[in-house]
Specification:
mainly alpha, two-stranded antiparallel ribbon, 20 helices, 2 strands, 75% helix
């Protein structure tokens, strides 16, 4: 239901306050972003017990995480494009509804097959952030847009920091299905909130949806991410993994060829390959890699047994609380990111964020034995992530026309997802190769953790270099008119000159 237009104020009198629904647009969208991140992390405390609870193997249970990753990566650019064409509010509501349905399925069943399918449905929520950012661009004046977009970007870290201790507490004191009943209720609130508070944007992309392009991208990304996520378990040199990587290269190459020859492509590659957009995507991939290592390594490090000489032997609840200060920091620093971007440009904010992430890993390398230093280092990394993640959508907003905002931000989120999946595989490989026996079981050594920190820090510095290589900022193009292929080629020629 569309919002009523605000009544014009009498000349010379103070402007009339916006209607309640209009004032609630930003909080409702931010709630959706936090809920999406919470939904992705709530299953983590369950993983050690799920094989027993579902009468299945640990390898099968791991698909409850992999299915969400694959579905989110595939659906984010697809739903972003659908939002640009058919209405962002409509597609956003659908994504949150799929997430809620998946949560209800998890609450009703203990069958591992049903849980995997349900978790795949929850992956649709990965599109919430790019769709919401596109809505904010359409609905807010420029002076409010920067801070709102920064807040929306930070919801990913805030939700992840809240989700882990919340889920751990519920699992520890209640039946594990209770956790999914709770997220089902929150999901229903999110769907109702978007339906009530968010106005459908009139900015649309014309044309037909590229079904062939969507199927090709889905097939290519599934092969790529399946190989990356399962390489450690199946073996990086195994025929299955090598076959998946070969298939990914072939399918994505054919997809690229098809996209360049389609009148209404799923992804405008002429736009993506322009330095301002392409380098933003590269920086997103590298930042996603650097950020994700912080959560992965911190959780494992503080839970390591004390017999290792460095581990603290903390419970999953205490581990979640160690990551909570980082989530609070992301909430507090998102307005600062918007101010820096307004004053210096988002590429400077992105480079600064990458440098802060690298500094956080220096702290981690300097001392990873004392709890307060571990929390400090993790919080510094989270602060840098806030600056970087808040700047990335602003870079995209300044580089693409308004009617391609959701799809372009969807691709940017996809690149972050690929970076996170690669980070998970790389960290696992490093820790696996640096183990020692503790109580007869192999446990990662402190040296392995420090190498993982160093690797993530170097990647963060490379992300900063990529950010500084992005051509200078320009004013955002908010015209709803789609760019033609001739205009894209002309702009490419001008940038090359």
């Amino acid at each position: 239901m569309d919002q009523p237009a605000p009544t014009a104020a009498h000349p010379g009198s103070p402007a009339a306050p916006p209607p309640l629904r209009q004032r609630m647009t930003i909080p409702v969208l931010a709630f959706g972003g936090i809920l999406m991140a919470v939904m992705q992390t709530v299953v983590v405390p369950l993983l050690p017990d799920l094989p027993r609870l579902t009468h299945s193997s640990a390898g099968t249970v791991s698909w409850t995480v992999t299915a969400t990753l694959l579905a989110g990566a595939v659906l984010t650019p697809v739903l972003g494009r659908a939002g640009d064409m058919y209405g962002k509010r409509r597609v956003l509501t659908g994504a949150l509804a799929l997430m809620t349905v998946g949560s209800v399925m998890c609450a009703l069943s203990s069958d591992i097959s049903v849980l995997i399918v349900a978790r795949a449905l929850q992956g649709a929520a990965a599109s919430v952030v790019p769709l919401s950012i596109s809505i904010l661009r359409d609905e807010l004046p420029p002076e409010r847009r920067g801070s709102a977009v920064a807040l929306m970007s930070s919801t990913v870290g805030i939700g992840a920091a809240l989700g882990l201790p919340l889920a751990a507490l519920v699992v520890q004191y209640y039946d594990w299905h209770t956790m999914f009943w709770l997220t089902s209720l929150l999901g229903a609130v999110g769907v109702a909130g978007v339906w009530w508070a968010v106005r459908e944007s009139p900015v649309r992309e014309s044309g037909r949806f590229d079904v062939l392009g969507a199927l090709g991208l889905a097939a290519g990304l599934t092969c790529l991410l399946l190989g990356v996520s399962q390489g450690g378990e199946w073996g990086w040199g195994s025929p299955r993994v090598l076959g998946l990587f070969g298939a990914a290269v072939l399918v994505l190459a054919l997809w690229w060829w098809q996209q360049l020859r389609t009148g209404q492509p799923l992804v405008d590659l002429h736009l993506v390959t322009r330095p301002r957009v392409g380098l933003s995507h590269v920086a997103a991939l590298l930042t996603g890699f650097a950020f994700y290592a912080n959560s992965l390594v911190t959780a494992q490090l503080v839970q390591a047994p004390k017999a290792t000489g460095y581990g603290l032997g903390l419970s999953i609840v205490a581990t979640g609380l160690c990551l909570l200060p980082g989530g609070v920091t992301m909430l507090l620093f998102s307005p600062l990111s918007a101010r820096i971007s307004a004053a210096r440009g988002p590429r400077i904010t992105l480079a600064l964020g990458a440098a802060v992430i690298a500094c956080g890993y220096v702290v981690r390398i300097a001392d990873s034995r004392d709890l307060w230093m571990i929390i400090l280092g993790a919080t510094v990394v989270a602060t840098g992530t806030t600056l970087a993640y808040s700047a990335l959508p602003t870079l995209i907003l300044r580089s693409v026309p308004a009617n391609q905002t959701a799809s372009a931000n969807g691709v940017n989120v996809l690149m972050r997802t690929i970076g996170q999946a690669t980070s998970s595989a790389a960290v696992a490989a490093v820790l696996t190769h640096h183990t020692s026996l503790v109580g007869g079981a192999p446990v990662a050594t402190l040296h392995g953790y420090l190498l993982a920190f160093a690797m993530a820090g170097v990647v963060a510095l490379v992300a900063g270099c990529a950010a500084l290589s992005i051509p200078g900022d320009k004013a955002p193009d908010d015209t709803p008119r789609a760019r033609s292929r001739t205009e894209s080629a002309r702009d490419d020629a001008l940038e090359g000159a």
